[in-house]
């Protein structure tokens, strides 16, 4: 729940406070980027740790949205030492704003940080940072019944954790940065049913790899497979396991199947760590278990 206001929320210029946001235009574009007002930015280095004194105060690291300065030799650009997350803040009918299971996202980010030799931050600090971004960009949280949305609109939060140190050798960075930006979004796939193309030429992940981590490098290798699917009239790709036998992941999301006769819900397991343990996936599984599906 985000009703508690930050003690020193960034000032909002008067022209912003009176500006009318064209929700129909923004949300009808689906999952598209719209620049908002503020981001969260926090630096780390191996010698002194995270750049805050004594106690962590998320609001003190809220800054106006602007391009980042990154060295061309930064480890993230050369060797892909970077992670991302994707959380949502939703406005309820009573006007209150809620983050959807933010601690799951914080825990998953730290799990990826361990795998990628990046610094971890206490989960509560990560959640506080997400709340600070939402509070600073509150005017960009869509109304619950905004025009142009095919599903519940949201303010999408994109945490990024990446190595910023300039290095030529293939070694982890001793400097890193946590950045969180936000964008109002509509539906990812739209309101109509979509078809998937079973992909046998490419695999998204293999056992022992990083398919179970939300790594920045996991997505670009899927672009060609997705383009192939779209050329054939499909919305996305259904990836199989490395043995080409079992369904594993549906492109940009987890995969579920429902047996029409028994109503049993099936979804691939995450024990092999070849697919992402999605927060929405975990929620659906919990609800299905409670409903005995």
Describe the structure.
The chain is an alpha+beta fold. Helix content is 22%, strand content 21%. It contains 7 helices and 13 strands. Strands 1, 2, 3, 4, 5, 6, 7 and 8 form an 8-stranded antiparallel β-sheet that branches. A hairpin with a 5-residue loop joins strand 5 and strand 6. Helix 4 packs across helix 5. The protein is globular, with a radius of gyration of 20 Å. The two termini are 30 Å apart.
Order of helices and strands: HHEEEHEEEHHEEEHEEEEH
How many helix segments?
7
The structure class reads: alpha+beta
Largest sheet: 8 strands, antiparallel
In short:
This protein is an alpha+beta fold and about 290 residues long. The protein is built from 7 helices and 13 strands. The protein is globular and about 60 Å long.
Topology readout:
Layout: H1 14-17, H2 23-28, E1 38-45, E2 49-50, E3 62-64, H3 75-79, E4 82-84, E5 87-91, E6 97-99, H4 102-115, H5 123-136, E7 154-163, E8 175-185, E9 196-199, H6 223-231, E10 236-240, E11 247-249, E12 257-258, E13 265-266, H7 279-290
Parallel strand pairs: 9-10
Antiparallel strand pairs: 1-2, 1-3, 1-8, 4-7, 5-6, 5-7, 7-8, 10-11, 12-13
Helix pairs in contact: 4-5
